[in-house]
Amino acid sequence: xxxxxxxxxxxxxxxxxxxxxxxxxxxxxxxxxxxxxxxxxxxxxxxxxxxxxxxxxxxxxxxxxxxxxxxxxxxxxxxxxxxxxxxxxxxxxxxxxxxxxxxxxxxxxxxxxxxxxxxxxxxxxxxxxxxxxxxxxxxxxxxxxxxxxxxxxxxxxxxxxxx
Length: 163
What we know:
Region (Disordered): 58-83
Mean pLDDT: 77
Order of helices and strands: HHHEEEHEEHE
InterPro entries: SPOR-like_sf
Structural class: alpha+beta
GO molecular function, one term: peptidoglycan binding
Protein name: SPOR domain-containing protein
């Protein structure tokens, strides 16, 4: 005789759980990493590391501008070119070099800081709407560096003084 099969109960079907399928998750991760790499390489990198390409037409234009005198092109040893405009720069004459102890936006602040330093022989010089606290003005940068070493102040430096 045949054995009777017992019907499966509700409890026994709960014991067998569904096994998760990780293949779609792995596939999605691989696609997203690939898309991220492609975006970084072909979209972000060309924008960040942009180097203009010179063509034959551009080189002809720059040569024409060079003969006109409006632009000068200097070819460096690695083949890249540097374009400089003919801008008239007002040359400022150097009065000398001095040890600078501070720089302030107002003359009153500079004078109060100068008195708090307690060093004799300091002066306030105005340059470019700023007030510099400086020492003696020297003819050479080397003399100013020697004065800086002899002053013993850590937060001072040598600056250029213009006329």
